[in-house]
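Troubleshooting log. The previous structure file for this entry was overwritten by mistake, so regenerating from the original sequence record. Sequence copied from the archived sheet and checked twice against the printout by T.R.
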Amino acid sequence: MNNKRITIVGCGRQSQAMVYDLCRFGGDLFDTVVLCDRDAKQIDRLVRHVSAELKKSGVKSPKSVKKVLDASNKAAVKKAAAGSRLILSASHYALNPSLAEVAITLGAHFGDLGGYLDSTVKIKKLDAKARVKGVYLVPDLGLAPGMANILGAWGLRNMEPCESITLYCGGLPQQPVGPLSYKIVFSLEGVWGTHLGKTVVLKDGQPAEVENLGDLEIVESEKLGKLEAFNTGGALATAPWALKGRVRDYTYKTLRYPGYVAKMKFLQELGLLDFKERLVNGVKVAPIKVVGEVLKEKLAFPNVGDLVILIVEVKGKDKATGETKLVRFEMLDLKDTVTGFSAMERTTGFSASICAQMLLRGQGIDTRGKKGGFLLPEDTFDTDVFIAESEKRDIKITRRTYICQPANLLASQTA
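Regenerated output below.
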């Protein structure tokens, strides 16, 4: 493609980090960025913040085109994104399938921040249409799904057999605060979507449903000490089905400071997290809507910086040495007080930007011989290249390797 435009749909906080990184490290890949959002003020905030930070870095801002539109209006998005080589969505996850359809129509690659299985399944069904147009559809490029899965994919490439991949991730305040030892680091809608109901993991070689907030365990972080880990949805996307036969167990758990799960289950058992509406003083209201409004206030803590902790463990037989190993990746990122980007924005927005740049450059990626179509992040992005790119953004990922025998860890080395 010779197109020199990229289009961003949704201009919230994650997009500010994403566009900043695209401009700082991938400015040679485009000369114009089209910014789409239904809120003109949101677009303006993005432009101001990104332009100011690029100026500090000595990077010239690309031409920006502002488009105020409703992302559910496919015709409007198609018109705005015409001539783009890539469409990146940071919009509501329910809109991603229709945005992927627009990208195919325009002959543009597509990526999103993911996190919602139904949307990824719908995008995967567009595989054949994307192949005809020679464009790639790569959803789930944020933090988890995204960075976490790409680190876990190291086991798929370097172990035979790969016995297990376990992803642990949490966005937390830099110190426990408030009644839940937690502050809101992304939308509460996203929290409810991952915490309630069931999710699918790969267990004993088969996709299996597990209860969210279940399978509680304590995980030891090198940097933060003991944390709670529990099942949550969204981060594995279609992998439990796509990777069947290639890894025995593939699971994802959210990390929180100790005590969080008991408090969330208390709210759940009281019915305060129900979506079923009740009639209160003549007004229909869902308990979770009321709780959500209260928590937005009680868990804001605007003066408390955030952090992101990510731990990925892969176990299997090393292809090169034949030894059974446990390889553990760990990343701790803090809010950047210089640029103002939170840890969640850095690890989500920068991750999506890194993936987009790898895709557009054709470097550090494996399309498995496909000339277009749906791509799974685990199969597509080289872990070591991704880690090197993250290091350029001062996102440091450590790797420790443990030589294993049944039930014993005998030796370790830092890589």
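Confidence is low (pLDDT under 50) at residues 406-415. Archived copy saved in two places this time.
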